[in-house]
Amino acid sequence: MTTTRRHEAVALAGLLATAGVTHLLRPRLYDPIVPGALPGPARLWTYASGVAELAVAAAVAHPATRRAGGRAAAALFVAVLPANVKMAVDWRHRRPTKRAIAYGRVPLQVPLIWWALRVARAGR
């Protein structure tokens, strides 16, 4: 694996770890975007996604598990897409800046999925 690819993996792991920590420390930010169709309380899903992000970050960070971690990251980015869509719908009447943030999260999933798959392909 090239240095550039290692840096990509470390950056992806850092992004996932940061998101995971944020879900655990500031769950009130994420609870409102948990789709109502999911069973149980939103807080459970917020914490579960935070733990999943931390686990995937660890898998991406370690060379021996990087391939599986990249694939898991791609799956995680697909799995959180409904929450981003919900946020975009819920925020459609907010100020333009907040709307732009909410709307921007939806298409951002595509490059995130691509990045995760790129890291997976470069893994062992």
Could you characterize what this model shows?
The protein has one domain: Four Helix Bundle (Hemerythrin (Met), subunit A) (Up-down Bundle). The chain is 76% helix and 0% strand. The protein contains five helices and no strands. The longest helix has 27 residues. The chain is globular and about 45 Å long. The termini are close together.
Shape: globular
Oligomeric description of these chains? single chain
- What is the total tally of β strands? 0
From the coordinates shown, what is the CATH architecture? Up-down Bundle
Number of domains: 1
Number of helices: 5
Mean pLDDT: 95
The CATH topology: Four Helix Bundle (Hemerythrin (Met), subunit A)
Rg over CA atoms, rounded to whole Å, is 15 Å
What's the CATH class label? Answer: Mainly Alpha
Helix content: over 70%
Kindly estimate the percentage of residues that lie in beta strands according to DSSP. under 5%
Structural class: mainly alpha
Low-confidence region ranges: none
Main beta-sheet strand count, sense and barrel state: none
From the N-terminal CA to the C-terminal CA, the straight-line distance is: 8 Å
